[in-house]
Write a structure and sequence with these properties.
The complex is a heterodimer of chains A (263) and B (300). Chain A has 9 helices and 10 strands. Chain A has 263 residues and is of the alpha/beta class. Chain A starts with a strand and ends in a 13-residue tail after the last helix. Chain B has one domain: Orthogonal Bundle (ABC transporter involved in vitamin B12 uptake, BtuC), CATH 1.10.3470. Chain B is built from 13 helices and 2 strands; from the N terminus they run ααααβαααααβαααα. The chains are: A alpha/beta (263), B mainly alpha (300).
Chain lengths: 263, 300
C-alpha cells in the first residue's frame, strides 16, 4: 500500500546548518498495516510523516501509494490518499467554522468542491451519525463553532475528520501527546477503533512506549534518519518496553527521547 | 444626512469586499486603493465610448477581478508577503489607471449612467434612492453569504481560518486565496464604478486611503453587531459602511474640512481596534464568551 524507497530529506542543504533528517530510509506497509514509530529526539519521525503527506519535498528516493509514485504530487492533491492528525489539538480543525462545516470539509476531501451548499439537511444527518460514534455528545451541537470545544474534543473531531473519507494512509503525529491523561486515553481508544473498523493503513509516531506496544501490528524504531529496529507482527505480540530499551541501547549513541514514557 | 446614507450604502459594496479578504481570508489586501479607481476608470471609459451603463459596470467589475488575481498570484506563486503584494499591485495600478483614463479626471456629467433615470426623476437624495441602494447592497451581501456557504466557499473560509488543516484536507489553498482576492477586488471595483457614476466623474486620486475606510467599516460594524455567524458579519460590514459615512458627515458638519477626513478615518480605525481590547471591556467580553461556551458545551 505504502512504499517508501530510499528517501532522503536534508534541511538547509549546502549550508553549515545542513542536517540530514531522513537518510535513505525505506519502509513498506501492506494494506491494513498499523505501524507505530518510536525513536530519539530528532530521529526524523515527524519528518517522515511530513514527506509522506507532501508538506516537505524529498531530495532522493520515491514514495509510492498503491503502486503510484506520489513523490512530486502537491500536498493538497495527496490529501486524496493521505490523511493526518497533528500533535497540536487545535491544528486539525477550523475554529471559526461550525462542527457541521468542519465535517463538510472532511466530507469533500479528495473531491471537487463546487457551488452546491456545504451543509444540507441530508448531509447534516450523516454528520450527526458520524459524530455520534465519538460518544461525546457533539452530535447535538452541529452549529457550534469548533473553537468552543476543548482540546480533547477537538482532537477526537480531528481524528474523525481524518478518517472520514477512508484515506489509503492515515498519519498520526503524537496526536495524544498534548492531551491530559484521560483525554489521551479516550483519543487512543478512538484511534484503535477507527483504524480497526475501517481497516485503515496507518503510521503513528508516539513517545509513549506502552501505546507503541499496545496499538498496531508492527513497530519500528528510528534513529538519525533511519530505521534501526523493526518488530514484526509475531514479535510485537510479546515484546516488552524493557526489551525495546535494551535494543535501543545497543544502537551506538542512541538515547530514547527524554519525553518517552514507560508506563 | 440622506446623502451620507446613500453614499454609505454605495460604499457598503466595497466594505463587503474588504470583509472577504480581511476577515474571511485573513489577508489584509491593500490592492483596494488601486482597484477601486480601476473600476471607476474602466466604467467611465466605457460610458464615454457610448456603452450601456450595465455593460460598463460589468467591465469595471472584471477589471477589479484581474487586479485581485494579480495580487493573489504575486502572493501565491511569487511567495510575496500579503501586504507587499497588495502595495505592489496598488502602485502599479496607479499608472495603469492613468493609461485607462488617458488623463487624471474624466467627467461623466453629460453621459447616460446607471443613475441618470434616478436623477431625471429627482429621486436621488430621497428615501426612494436610499431604499434602492439598500436593496443593491443586500443583494450583493446575500450573494456573498450564499457563496460562503457553498462547498467552495467553506473551503475558502477554512483556508483563512486554519491553512494547515485546509491543505491537509485537500483544499487547494493557493487557488482559494486567488479566487477570494478576485471576488473581493471585483466588488471593490464595482463600488468604484458606482461611485464614479454617482458623483459624475472618475478621478485618479479617488481611491487613495480607501482601504482604511473599508477596514473602518468592517471593524466598526463588527464591534457593534458582532461577527459570530457569517450573515451577521456580512451585515455588520455593510452597516459599518453606513455608520462610517455618518461619522464622517458629522465631522464635516462640526466644521472639519474634507482634507481632515483621512486623519479621521485612521483615528476611527485605531479606536475601533483598541477600544474593545481595553482591559475592563475585554474582561467583560471574555466573561460573556466564557459563559456562553459553558452554557453551550455544558459539563462533559
Amino acid at each position: 500500500m505504502l512504499e517508501i524507497q530510499g528517501v532522503t530529506k536534508r534541511f538547509f542543504p549546502g549550508t553549515v546548518n545542513e542536517r540530514v533528517a531522513l537518510n535513505h530510509l525505506s519502509l513498506d506497509l501492506k494494506e491494513g498495516d498499523f505501524v507505530t514509530i518510536i525513536g530519539s529526539n530528532g530521529a526524523g519521525k515527524s519528518t517522515l510523516l511530513n514527506v509522506i503527506s507532501g508538506r516537505y519535498p524529498i531530495d532522493e528516493g520515491a514514495i509510492l501509494i498503491g503502486g503510484r509514485d506520489i513523490s512530486r504530487m502537491p500536498e493538497h492533491k495527496r490529501a486524496r490518499f493521505v490523511a493526518r492528525v497533528f500533535q497540536d489539538p487545535m491544528a486539525g480543525t477550523a475554529p471559526r467554522l461550525t462542527l457541521e462545516e468542519n465535517l463538510s470539509i472532511a466530507f469533500d476531501r479528495g473531491q471537487r468542491r463546487g457551488l452546491s451548499l456545504a451543509v444540507t439537511n441530508k448531509k447534516r444527518e450523516q454528520y450527526r451519525e458520524a459524530l455520534a460514534k465519538l460518544d461525546l455528545g457533539l452530535e447535538n451541537r452541529l452549529s457550534l463553532r469548533v473553537g468552543m470545544l476543548s482540546g480533547g474534543q477537538r482532537q477526537a473531531l480531528s481524528l474523525l475528520m481524518a478518517a472520514y473519507q477512508q484515506p489509503d494512509i492515515l498519519l498520526l503525529d503524537e496526536h495524544t501527546a498534548a492531551l491530559d491523561p484521560s483525554r489521551a486515553e479516550l483519543v487512543t481508544r478512538l484511534t484503535g477503533e477507527l483504524i480497526q473498523e475501517n481497516g485503515l493503513t496507518a503510521l503513528m509516531v508516539t513517545h509513549n512506549m506502552h501505546q507503541a506496544i499496545e496499538l498496531g501490528n508492527r513497530l519500528v524504531m528510528m534513529h538519525e534518519g533511519n530505521i534501526v529496529l523493526e518488530v514484526d507482527e509475531d514479535a510485537k505480540k510479546t515484546v516488552t518496553a524493557e526489551e525495546l530499551l535494551e535494543e535501543f541501547a545497543k544502537t551506538k549513541g542512541a538515547h530514547l527521547s527524554d519525553r518517552t514514557m514507560l508506563d | 444626512m440622506i446623502i451620507a446614507l446613500e453614499i454609505g450604502l454605495l460604499y457598503a459594496v466595497m466594505a463587503i469586499g474588504v470583509y472577504l479578504t480581511y476577515r474571511v481570508l485573513d489577508f489584509p489586501d491593500l490592492t483596494v486603493d488601486g482597484s477601486f479607481t480601476t473600476g471607476a476608470a474602466t466604467t467611465a471609459v466605457f460610458i464615454l465610448a457610448g456603452a450601456p451603463p450595465a455593460l460598463a459596470m460589468v467591465a469595471g467589475f472584471l477589471s477589479g477581478v484581474i487586479a485581485g488575481i494579480i495580487t493573489g498570484g504575486l502572493h501565491v506563486w511569487g511567495n510575496i508577503n500579503p501586504l507587499l503584494a497588495g502595495i505592489l499591485t496598488q502602485i502599479a495600478l496607479y499608472s495603469i489607471n492613468l493609461r485607462i483614463m488617458g488623463k487624471a479626471n474624466l467627467p461623466l456629467l453629460r453621459s447616460e449612467t446607471m443613475f441618470t433615470p434616478l436623477r431625471e426623476n429627482q429621486m436621488l437624495g430621497t428615501w426612494a434612492s436610499v431604499a434602492m441602494f439598500a436593496v443593491v447592497a443586500a443583494i450583493i451581501g446575500g450573494l456573498l453569504y450564499w457563496f460562503l456557504g457553498t462547498r467552495y466557499g467553506v473551503a475558502i473560509r477554512a483556508t483563512g481560518d486554519n491553512e494547515l488543516m485546509a491543505k491537509a484536507q485537500g483544499i487547494n489553498t493557493g487557488q482559494g486565496k486567488i479566487v477570494g482576492l478576485a471576488i473581493s477586488n471585483g466588488l471593490v471595483a464595482l463600488c468604484g464604478s458606482l461611485i464614479a457614476q454617482y458623483q459624475g466623474f472618475a478621478d485618479i486620486s479617488m481611491g487613495i486611503g480607501l482601504i482604511v475606510a473599508g477596514l473602518a467599516s468592517v471593524i466598526v460594524g463588527q464591534a457593534i453587531f458582532g461577527m459570530t455567524a457569517v450573515w451577521q458579519a456580512v451585515f455588520a460590514a455593510a452597516i459599518g459602511s453606513v455608520i462610517y459615512r455618518g461619522i464622517i458627515q458629522l465631522a464635516l458638519n462640526a466644521g472639519l474640512n474634507p482634507n481632515d477626513m483621512k486623519l479621521i478615518s485612521a483615528v476611527l480605525v485605531v479606536l475601533a481596534l483598541t477600544i474593545p481590547s481595553l482591559s475592563p471591556l475585554k474582561r467583560r467580553r471574555q466573561k460573556r464568551i466564557r459563559d456562553k461556551a459553558v452554557a453551550q458545551v455544558g459539563a462533559q
